[in-house]
Amino acid sequence: MSKMKIKKGDTVVVLSGDDKGAKGAVKLTMPKRQMVIVAGVNMIKKHQKPTGSTRTQVGIIEREAPIHVSNVALYCSHCERGVRVGYQVAPDGSKVRVCRRCGEPL
Length: 106
Ligand SMILES: [Zn+2]
What we know:
The protein has no helices and ten strands. By secondary structure, the protein is an all-beta fold. It has a six-stranded antiparallel β-sheet with strand order 6-3-2-1-7-8, with no helix packed on it. A two-stranded antiparallel sheet has the order 4-5. It has a two-stranded antiparallel sheet with strand order 9-10. The chain starts with 10 loop residues before the first strand and ends in a 7-residue tail after the last strand. Zinc ion (ZN) binds next to loops.
């Protein structure tokens, strides 16, 4: 299991599939499955079954389905595109994610 380079709250670009080119914020990461949920991306319709006597929950709801991290790239606002991520060691010893294209911190 490799460590995920993408974190919750990141803006990513979708690289393949029906939503190719779509941009959105990461709502959730699933490191064990190497999947992410991106806001507004890979929407699936789900039929909500009636529960109890309330009718408010009945119908079709749309929600995001997880997509594999290999299908998304971190968005660089400098490059204005999805980019590959590199790491640099900051002066205080901490690791900083940087854009491999322009070198800016992400
Ligand atoms: Zn960049």
